[in-house]
Specification:
Elements (H helix, E strand, L loop, with lengths): L24 H9 L4 H9 L9 E7 L6 H16 L4 E2 L2 E9 L10 H13 L3 E5 L4 H14 L2 E4 L30 E3 L4 H14 L5 E6 L3 H17 L2 E7 L8 H8 L5 E5 L6 H10 L6 E3 L6 H7 L1 H4 L3 E6 L3 H7 L1 H14 L7 H18 L4 H9 L24 E8 L2 E9 L1
Helix pairs in contact: 1-2, 3-14, 4-5, 6-7, 9-10, 12-13, 14-15
Amino acid sequence: MDRREETAKGNAPNENNKPKTGVDRRKFLGLAAGGVGVAAAGAFLMSGGCGSKNALVIASSLPRTGSAQGQTDTIVNGIKMAIDDYNGEINGIKIQHRDMDDATAAQGQWDGGKEADNAREAAGDKNVMVYIGPYNSGASMVSQPILNEAGLLQISPAATWPGLTTKVPGNAKDEPAIHRKSDKLTFCRVCPTDFVQGPLSAVFAKDVLKVKKVYVLDDKELYGAGIAGLFKKKCEELGVQVLGHQSIVTTQTSFKGLMKQIGAMNPDLIYFGGTTQSKGPQIAIDMKGEGLNCPLMVPDGCYEQAFIEGAGPEVLNGRVYATIGGYDPGQMLTAGGSGAEYVKKYQAKFGKMPEAYAVYGYEAAKVFLEAVKKVGKKDREELRKTVLETKDFSAGALGKWSFDADGDTSIRVLTISKIEGGAFNPQKTITE
């Protein structure tokens, strides 16, 4: 995740502070201050930051600062693994990776200004042929119009809000048109959308957990509120009683009063649409503190080790279900095939298991690099078209899949895990 998300206040780019060039002013001044002349600093950035100016550059923009870093570290590792599969060169073209951070220490998560800067820098560099990212759906709303206007291919490994690519029933926004400045499709994603995760989570709650009454919470952000709404709608269709639906104030440090109110309604399940960064761990802590013994279900914005560490394994043990579009890495390892090969390679290279979204960093880079093999040259338009025309792709770790006309993956799978012993333990995988 959607990875998530997303603080509405402070994250929207300030129109008055937008740089007028494709160069990140903060990076440029930092280089100049370090003894690099202005002209040399500009040449350095335009060449991809290192190596030959003729190299093909894969830019990625992810929150590399804050609690999402553990997850994005493994996404970046996946990108590096894919490049290594080709020994860093295709058809005589050197492949470089530019690891860009769209978060700030002050925010502790993604920042709209940083994401806009990253998109402009990538768009303005003639050597950048693809932009892998962002991690958050809200950040995608910032970068997608910039990259679309530049005709630069964008592949997200984690942004799951459906409105980025297609119309969402009941959504008043003119999505996805508002994210595109041209009629050309430039955005695609290798992860399943919340059209899969939200409704199938409700199916699991009813059919497996036997839930009859649920209380729904969200963090009031694009991803969190969106997936909570999709979960709620499916519950109502299935005949599950929704006792209430409330958006939390993420600046609060405690939700004990709210938990007491919800506990009086005696729900069979609490569903939280949000992320580790938007107080998912605190919801779990205060549920236990107020004696709510019903399960908590959280989406993929919490499907990361940081969520477990934030709440504490003893708080979550056997009480929390987490969902993710696609497969858990442990499942992939035991299932064999290309997925198991990927996990084993990751373990051998980095000495640990990948987090859940690492495979989407790998898959995003693989589908692009296979297009480079086919096109055989640095050509943004040809590479964009070739990637978006992908059908029956099987050179990665996710089996055979295709992009549809909206740029979404044909993979429509949900895995539900119970958190036990400080780890995600897959319980069921549902295919739509």
